[in-house]
């Protein structure tokens, strides 16, 4: 089981690395693309990253376009600050307009080149 989790975490991080500057994705979207069991698993994978990571973890938000609270209370402010510096704008309610700033996901060619199973499209959260 640990090996399966490690493989899914690796896929999650590969997908997150593809989110371009100025765009965000949801935990559910990342989980679906990576074949993870749940959005929470994507959160665990990102939560375990070291502080000096080059994985753009800040570009992953919840299904409502909000920043999900973490164990570190300063992390929410830090994530928001980084996203604003990357050109992401927050609405008055503190959420990101996913229609404007949401990422469509990696190209099918990228998925195939990285051995992801191409699943039929379904609603992503």
Walk me through this protein's architecture.
The chain has one domain (1-114): Arc Repressor Mutant, subunit A (Orthogonal Bundle). The protein has a two-stranded parallel ribbon. The model has no long low-confidence stretch (mean pLDDT 88). The protein has 125 residues and is mainly α. The protein is 45% helix and 3% strand. The protein has helices at residues 2-17, 27-34, 39-47, 73-85, 98-101, 108-113, and strands spanning 25-26, 60-61.
Q: Outline the biggest β-sheet.
A: 2 strands, parallel
Rounded radius of gyration (Å): 14 Å
Mean pLDDT score: 88
CATH class bucket: Mainly Alpha
Total strand segments:
2
Low-confidence stretches: none
Spatial gap, N to C terminus: 26 Å
* H/I helix tally: 6
Helicity, as a percent range: 40-55%
Task: Tell me the count of domains.
Answer: 1
The proportion of strand residues reads: under 5%
Looking at CATH, the homologous superfamily is Winged helix-like DNA-binding domain superfamily/Winged helix DNA-binding domain
How would you classify the quaternary structure?
single chain
Pattern of helices and strands: HEHHEHHH
The strand order across the widest sheet is 1-2
CATH topology: Arc Repressor Mutant, subunit A
Keywords: DNA damage, Methyltransferase, Transferase
Protein name: Cysteine methyltransferase
Organism: Caldilineaceae bacterium SB0661_bin_32
Domain Methylated-DNA-[protein]-cysteine S-methyltransferase DNA binding: 9-88
